[in-house]
Amino acid sequence: MNSIAKIYDFLGRLAENNNRDWFAAHRDEYDEVNALWLADVQRLIDRMSLWDKSLTGLKARDSVYRIYRDTRFSPDKSPYKRHFGALIGQGGRKCALSCCYVHIQPGNSGLHGGIWCPERDVLDALRHAIDDNIEEFLEILNRKEFARRFSLFGDTLKKMPRGFAADNPNGKYIKIKEYLLEGQRSDDWFINCDDWTEKAAADFRLMQDFHNFMNFTIKNEV
What we know:
The protein is an alpha+beta fold. It is built from 10 helices and 5 strands, in the order αααβββαααβαβααα.
């Protein structure tokens, strides 16, 4: 049983017993699978840092999210998440740039990326950059290997944002409120291999030109 299979086994049982008593009784199991998760994420970061120097020195502990849920404003009061997640970008989970995210959850795992909930001025700059450089943006999205593995998604406005003509032909991309890349992967994709981090690093590398496009604007025009 590889690391992800063990993590899936624990998360599956946690989903069925999402309470503090059960978790306390199985704390040793959690510590074991969490250690496996941290080791996997570190191996993934180290592979990615070979071609993304901004990740050099990044530690897994700074990229992974806690298992504990913030239930203060949620009607769901279950105390624990049903997944493991890690944000892999400059600064780890505090990264405010376009970056990569890996989500591990039985039946809902994936490799994702992009920029989540950008600030108003960042979003405005990205919209203008896409409108001004639409050919370059679409060329990145439509590359065969990229398009096979990832798709652009995000909540959108019903109307064009201020500063753009209502009939702008690039409205499909300008109305997006956050530029996210979705890459669902089957459970078998993660389990049926010696080292899933090698495959994930190769797929994440396909995102690099997308990140470069977005982050050039964020770093230079915001």
